[in-house]
Amino acid sequence: MPAIDCRVNSLLTLSDSEFLSTFRPSMLPPVNPPAPLPERDPAPATSPEAGNGDAPPLLFTSEELLRGQREILIRHAGAIYRLRVTQNGKLILNK
Fold it and tell me: Are strands 71-76 and 79-85 parallel, antiparallel or unpaired?
């Protein structure tokens, strides 16, 4: 079995908060850019999703967001959130 790089090994022993404060996107290997999302028909103006006259919210499937992964990180307002799929197929969002 090949030896694990000591930098990777040290990341494996961190708690979630320590990992998130240490993690930098530059640590990830390069990936191909995601395919463009298909055009979507906007929700009808009378639907509850349409809001208060503003543009309707965008709708994404979980498959579009996760792209085959069980977990993704989302940066929002300077904080990192973790969106993951449970063993029962439910979505959990944690800060």
Answer: antiparallel
Name all domains of the chain by residue range, CATH numbers in brackets. Answer: 6-26+39-94 (2.10.70.10)
Model pLDDT for residues 41-89, shown as the tens digit of each residue = 655 545 555 455 678 888 989 988 888 899 999 999 989 999 999 999 9
Residues near 42 by beta carbon (within 8 Å), at least 6 away in sequence: 55, 56
The DSSP bridge pattern shows strands 71-76 and 91-94 to be unpaired
SS3 41: coil
pLDDT confidence of residue 32:
66
Give the global pTM. 0.45
Residue 70, by phi and psi: left (phi above 0), alpha (psi -120 to 50) or beta?
alpha
Residue 85 and residue 62 in contact, taking contact as beta carbons nearer than 8 Å: yes
